[in-house]
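User: For my dataset I need records formatted as: sequence, then structure tokens, nothing else. Please produce one.
Assistant:
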Amino acid sequence: MTEIAVACDRAESSWAWTVDLRDPDGSATRHRVTLGDAALAGLAPGAADPIDLVRRSFAFLLAREPKESILTEFDLTVIGRYFPEYEAEVRGSD
């Protein structure tokens, strides 16, 4: 199973995360993800910890593609463009 490690940075009206994905064989990738406060409120209403949203989002992606296929830098809302079911599944996990 792929390990998901998340480090968070807070800006004035947005969030940024560095996400490291590591497989048991030692292979790893690093990703930089951003999300504005308004989009966070839409994806995870009332979320006290946006890191959980990021972890769930990467678990969602890893269920559909290898870690090497995940973009290295993107806004979290982009996932819905590639996978239309993303937002409904993430909201259902709250």
